[in-house]
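Chapter review: from sequence to fold.
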Amino acid sequence: MGKLDEFYWHEALDRTDSVRELVYAILENHPVIRADDQLNDSLDKVTDALCELYQLIGQKMPERKPMTDHTSCDQAGELKPPSTDEYMAVLMRATEDWKRQSERERSQRESEGTAYRNEIAQLKARLARARDALELIARYESFADTMQKIAREALGVGRGGDMERP
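The token string follows.
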């Protein structure tokens, strides 16, 4: 995998939060969990751990720009969220980076696939040559058996154990 860009970090944050929400939503009202304090406490620990993971990912995001780079202040000094255009520009850059990375990975898989197909073709050719060799050996053995039988008959070997002389 290439460089982890902004998109990957935001995606990790989003997926962590989604998993936390899902785990809590599904298990919070489950009768078994609700009936047992120890299980309920354990569920809280799991969701707390996911919250901690979310925070840790946020702290470790590289090249984070200060919030003021993505926001502006109104006259009262309140922070405003980024405009839709600014947000879309970030998403478009992240999407383009992801597309380029996907294309590189696809190209690499195709190259590996071509190499494997060539290797399989070589193995098939070797197998065909081995089958031809086995067939030739079988013909030779059959021929040798036939020749021995003819020679025995010609020499009279095998009739009563004595060789007849012409």
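Two observations follow directly from the output. The first strand starts at residue 72 and ends at 73. Residues 66-74 have pLDDT under 50 and may be disordered.
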